[in-house]
Design brief:
6-stranded parallel β-sheet, 383 residues, 25% strand, homotetramer, alpha/beta
Chain lengths: 383, 383, 383, 383
């Protein structure tokens, strides 16, 4: 038997969908390996509703609960801060936690806008803490394989990027929807921050930096159960990348014909790649000779040895376990968050692009996105 | 037995890919029905190469051949002019034929640019001849079903349009390619007129009028076997429609991973449609409940009774037979070209949008496309 | 320009579905190549209904019509006999034609049973005429590619064969169905001869000789519009091949959920193949690394240069043109019918296997199928 | 907050693939619901290898470990026995545990053969304990939906069943494989018990009782890393059901082209169903009108409310959590194991059918399978 793994006390803010996703992932981490890189101590869960918090304790074993995030981020016994709150509570608690020297992972979008995101990056960089933005798509084996194939030159020079993130969630105005998602004040944006941000991050991870965008946005359901919606529920974009590639991106939550259709595609001078989140265990690779589906449940693919012998697919939520393992490993000094995990710098850059998309849609004019000016301090090396 | 169908003497200009596609379709028309709406007399084939023309005569039974299109369009025995020539020979011969009172069907794109297209429309309208632009996609049973479902309200209010036309044809700069396709002077444009035009026409047929576009274009293979390419081989667009729908469109011939990936999708407030030219016998219809594939080889679908009892799919080229049957039926007064066939007005409108896409790509600025100003005289009624 | 191709006078028996399929193919042959291997003279169409025959003449250009097949097969001006009649009219007219020295191609199943089929083979062999059984599936490019990959060793040692031919055609007892298909006297069998025979022939073409079968059969719709059905409308089989491979086969016409689902699959020690007649332009090839779809519309695949430049798929009916071109080429001495075309020997062998399947279903006991005893004289070489 | 759920002390035998699958599921149960039906106390893990057992304790929190299964099943503090051992250790420990009054869930196949399985059923029935055979496929939402659609009459009269379970696991004789799987003495059978049993159980769950089978079996890799393989690695069957439906079934582990291709299909007089374990979140439903894919990640489907808000798919291993929750709920008296869970009676019946398949393959003669004679005592009602 090996030495005991390092263990870090975690405070989690958020008890809804994302709070559950992160709690479950943290709870599962010990099951993934005989010798884990690091393990979490599920110290405190923080939210607004006592009954909900008690239920989270029963489900995932959180030792303490709190309804005061200020107390949480100031608690000296907590080492890691997982921010799974609503968008309006991303910046202030994350900044406070970083200032307290806590390592921080924050849900995407990193903030409601680029100004907030920059402040978060600055705070984390200044504090010298490990920081990560929870773009969980990077932690599907198929996305890692896509990146590997691109780095190995299998795809050739990248020419096209194409993504669509189509949801039915707001198609029916009578379907309940969390109210905060409908207002700019609380959400920052609609589908741009909620959906498009995932694909912008993947575009950056796989293709490179977007340098200009055009966009149209719509709000098809302007009122939902009494709330005046002031964020977009549909957006389409064209995008230009630093290396010359061009692309289209699209996000919507008003298409009942697509319950969850999240696909990204990369076309190069040698081959094309396609990933569909409905089939997370597959990557499509097509060449002039044939269009292929690669099943990524073979243990030679990353993360797969954390699961089953072979051929048995994982689920969407399991990507969060990979992600939090990555975060803990970075905190433990086993590796750095970048390039495979997204840092606050990535989250900040994504926020700038989201803002550019919204500005393009609002103005009808192409928005150039400056690249290269350092968004702030680089990632800390804790090892 | 019924009366003998009306028969029209046809002159065809073009002996390459499209010349063959139209010849074969004309040759097959008599086989489609016991009582055809009208039949062609394959009178004269016109092109530059005598040996090629002789081969066309042997293959399809053209009675005469000519290397002089001026003679062809002036031949009083010819009633219908089928223009399957290269883009640079669309306007002048079609206008000349119309002035001679011949009914004209011309391959897409109708012309190299909107100015030429407008002149063609004006000439045809003034001459009072039947005119048609050969957008063959409108003649797949699945596209007709898509239109029908939209008209019946099955899709609801249309919110998104999405298309991609991805080819490998120019991915390898050493692959032979017809030289005229590589120069603006001869082709007008690259993938915009060649590929995107198909989807622009379908967007108009299914969704409505585009009113604004943004675009990026690229020429990834700037030289091909000694020719300096001055047209785009890749383009991406965002588009806004008159009814408020928004969309993305894309065309390229430099993606080896896609030998021919031509897909259009329409998302409405009730359901979504998708058509893929690799599977012409299918239409996808998805709702919140399920994603379905409708096999359109049942005789209740249009055109299917022209073929097999049921369940046996047609090929890509068979759409040309439907198209030319439609043209002959319009000439015979059985129906009008519009709304299911594209007229020169449709071809002209498509050319305006193509020009707007190219201007948007060149300028980086959103291009508004005026709608409503009549593009010219309306379709003649020959009945 | 080349010499004129040899031309052969054709007499066709049959004016229904298959009569049309063969007529259309014959009519199209001249369009396929600049220098055809041989061409048909559509001399006489023979059937029962004068009006129908007249329509066939108008559609396909048959020069003469006849309602007397005896006269047809005795007409000295006719050189080739195409038998597209109902099953009960396969043996006698084909034998008579062969005795008159006419080369014969006969629709599948070759006969109502193996006894009839043997007599046909004997007659053709004795007469020394070219004989062919019209298993059109062999003439899809994808099936040829499958055979080629197997011969090249890409699949390895073959271990499994799997086929299903699922139709909805008899699912609704009120759907009109040709009455002769419902009676053993006229059809020989139900789905065994009509559907399973296709896959048995492909199994022999791709895998090898079946040596034993087990089967269950059913007649789910025992009466259809007044006809007492005495043939099976559903059958399932297990099959053992000479080389050791084992397989399942299935045919039915009572599954409304499958309008036409005809799929064959071959699994070897290195890779697997799958062909689906709904997507005739594709072959699936899967290995341990990936599952691929090969688009066979590239001109390097057989038959494709008879059609479009590339990427544009053919339809189901076009396989008949390949098939009749093959037959005419064999008659002209350009190649032999075997191995790529099915001879009467293949048709006879298939009939023996069909009989074994029916016997297995009737008896509940495994049927061994003798192999190796020559079924008769070998194919004539006319060159 | 509700009352605390009943908690049961669990002893688990097995620390390999299935031991991990059950451990993980038990560990996760508390995370599924705010108010669980019952919860496990992970009391003792039992296996042969101390280091392995220690790792299992660290991963899943097993409180004790043991290398002596006799001690485990006699430990009075243990209430539930989960048998995830190799096939040779299914019968004896399960019987011993039942005799000690422990409720038992045993991995599939229930035993090496029907004799052993009957003894297990007899013992469990006599002891009056809750018994369950771990056919986890029954616990995919899509399979439950399939059953529901059948019960509601959506599929009509069932006519065909079709299944294939194709693996690559033994295709390469050099791939390591657990030695016990290669010998009849330890495994009972090869792919019949390991793979086909899953589909036999689903056939019984969805269609009804098989009453006769024919089969061929093969051992393509007769020696693997020094072990003489005496079980089949490939089998094909035809099957007849009590209600008249007929079907094909197939299982193999020697097809490298299929890493894990496990599909079942049911065709009825109204519609057809298909389930593919590579896409566990989907059920295909096809009718004469269209072929549809139903995404079962909507909370109206069973189990889905245990996971995410909607649209986010679960993984293969998550079915074990549903299964063990079902077992614990039965022990707690909330519901009975049948009909949705498989009891030892189901496991015993499946073993009888497996034996019949093997006998059919060995003898070449159709095997009839008696139905209706009670296999033993019925399921206990603990409530």
């Amino acid at each position: 038997m090996s030495d005991r793994p390092p263990t870090f006390a975690v405070g989690l803010l958020g008890s809804s969908f994302m709070g559950r996703a992160h709690s479950r992932a943290l709870y599962m981490l010990r099951t993934l390996e005989d010798d884990p890189v690091a393990l979490p101590d599920l110290h405190t869960i923080c939210g607004r509703d006592q009954a909900r918090l008690q239920a989270m304790q029963r489900r995932y074993g959180w030792r303490h609960r709190s309804t005061d995030w200020h107390a949480l981020v100031e608690d000296p016994s907590i080492q890691l801060f997982v921010n799974a709150a609503t968008n309006a509570l991303h910046a202030e608690p994350s900044i406070a936690a970083a200032k307290q020297g806590k390592h921080v992972i924050c849900e995407k979008p990193l903030a409601r806008n680029a100004v907030e995101a920059q402040a978060m990056l600055d705070a984390a960089a200044q504090a010298g803490v490990v920081h990560m933005c929870a773009f969980n798509y990077r932690f599907f084996p198929a996305i890692r394989l896509a990146r590997q194939l691109i780095e190995e030159g299998e795809i050739g020079e990248i020419r096209h990027f194409r993504s669509r993130f189509l949801l039915a969630s707001a198609a029916d105005p009578h379907t309940p929807e969390t109210a905060w998602r409908l207002r700019e004040e609380t959400a920052g944006s609609g589908v741009v921050g909620d959906l498009l941000a995932h694909h912008i991050d993947l575009a950056r991870y796989l293709v490179g930096e977007p340098v200009a965008v055009d966009a149209y946005a719509r709000t098809w359901a302007p009122e939902r159960h009494g709330v005046q919606v002031d964020v977009e529920d549909a957006v389409v974009c064209t995008v230009e990348f630093q290396g010359g590639a061009i692309g289209t991106m699209e996000a919507t939550r008003v298409t009942p014909g697509h319950v969850l259709d999240s696909v990204i595609e990369v076309d190069g001078s040698l081959a094309s790649l396609s990933f569909d989140v409905q089939h997370v265990n597959e990557l499509k690779l097509s060449t002039a000779a044939k269009a292929s589906t690669i099943n990524v449940t073979d243990p030679r693919h990353p993360f797969v040895d954390l699961w089953w012998p072979r051929c048995h697919g994982i689920g969407w939520g399991d990507s969060f376990a990979h992600e939090l393992r990555h975060f803990l490993g970075a905190v433990a000094g086993r590796w750095r968050v970048a390039p495979h995990g997204a840092t606050f710098e990535d989250g900040c850059r994504c926020a700038q692009i989201c803002d550019a998309v919204l500005a393009a849609a609002a103005s009808g004019a192409r928005q150039r996105i400056p690249v290269g000016a350092s968004a702030g301090e680089r990632e800390v090396d804790v090892s």
